[in-house]
Structure formats: C-alpha cells, structure tokens
Design brief:
It is a single chain. The chain has helices spanning 11-17, 60-69, 84-96, 111-114, 132-139, 150-155, 167-178, 182-199; strands at 5-8, 24-27, 47-51, 74-78, 102-104, 120-123, 143-147, 162-163. It is globular, with a radius of gyration of 18 Å. It starts with a strand and ends in a 10-residue tail after the last helix. The chain is 37% helix and 15% strand.
Length: 209
C-alpha cells in the first residue's frame, strides 16, 4: 500500500495487516456515547436482541435453532436485509418451525437507544472488527454474549460471555449467563461501563499506540 499510515479499530487486525502492509499501522478504538440513564435492572434475562444485517455470515439461522431449544426466551432480530435469498430461507424456517419466540423487527436506525429495551445482546459473526454494538451494550449496562473472535476478545475478557458458532455453545453460554446472580451481574455491568468510559467514550478519544 502507498499510504504512510494505516488505521484500524482492532488490534487483531493489525497482526493480519502486517502480512501485506509495511507502513505504520495505528489502532484507534471505536467510540460510543454514554447514556445518562439506564433501563430498570430486573435481574433476569428474558428479552434478547440480535442486531446484525441479515446475511449468512451473521448466522441468524443458528439463532432460530437456539430459539427452538430455549422457548423460555424471546429473540428479536434487528437489521437490514443484505441477502434476500437468505432472508426468505430464514423466514421460512421460522414459519415452518411454528416458533412464537423469535421475531424479525426490520432495520432500526437508533440501535443505541433500542437496546435499552432488552436484557441481553447476542452477536454471532464470522469476522468482526472493534464492535460498536458490544460497546453500546457496555455503555448501557446490558449483558452481551458474542462469538469468540479475536477482535471480540479485545473487549470481552471473560470467557463466560464468548461462544463458538454452534447451537450447543450458544445455549451453554446463555444458560451460564442467565444463571449469574444479581450482585455479580451488577459488578460485571459496572465494570463494562467503566471500560467504555475509560477507553471508548466519544467525549475523550485517545490514540493508543
């Protein structure tokens, strides 16, 4: 590449980029705003938001299979349709399975505000940079579980919130997280918000070497 400096929002990406880029690579994390108030903490998980474009790489079909096994939970899919054929197959799967606990809600422009209505954010992906959705969940003090990708591990250090992209692993993670007691949950949520305040607040961006 002819650029003097390249910028990425993921430390994991730096390792990959160094294979074909010899110039300087800087890491700048994404930033999110900090809400002034939070949803009332019930201490239970029942409503789950899955915010991602509708595409095979986001594995919404896996969520359908999880919903079949976890009918005590409600799953809400938000995201624009990037692959129409995949969307049709997804809707057919939901209808044929006669599931009442999984819903496609369409595209949401103000996702940062929308996630405040939910108890947990669930992200499944094959590839990910520094995820704004994880940071928004942290900032809003909402639990978040996600695929065990290197970029996600930069933000989520506790393995209990990371899963492999298969039904069994996602269900196991859901069951572990929903079993967290109130005091531990509050401590985790507070720690996550403090991480955003220190490292990823839009108010105070810092270039990290």
């Amino acid at each position: 590449s002819c650029a003097d400096v390249h910028v990425t929002n993921s430390k994991a990406a730096i390792t990959n980029m160094r294979e074909y880029i010899s110039s300087s690579i800087e890491y700048i994390p994404n930033g999110v705003s900090l809400p002034s108030s939070f949803k009332d903490e019930k201490g239970t998980v029942s409503k789950i938001i899955i915010p991602a474009r509708i595409h095979p790489s986001k594995h919404q079909q896996l969520i359908v299979d999880v919903a079949k096994m976890k009918k005590d939970l409600e799953f809400y899919l938000y995201g624009k349709i990037d692959d129409n054929q995949y969307y049709v197959e997804l809707m057919n799967n939901i209808q044929k399975s006669k599931l009442k606990n999984i819903h496609y809600m369409g595209y949401e422009a103000d996702l940062e505000k929308k996630i405040q209505e939910f108890d947990l954010v669930l992200l499944v992906a094959e590839n990910e940079g520094n995820s704004n959705v994880i940071l928004e969940a942290f900032a809003n003090e909402i639990l978040c579980i996600t695929s065990a990708l290197e970029a996600n591990k930069e933000l989520i250090r506790d393995n209990i919130f990371l899963f492999e992209n298969n039904v069994e692993s996602i269900i196991d993670t859901l069951e572990q997280v929903t079993a967290i007691n109130d005091s531990e949950r509050k401590m985790i949520l507070k720690r996550n918000r403090e991480f955003v305040e220190k490292n990823c607040s839009e108010i105070d961006f810092v270039l990290i070497e």
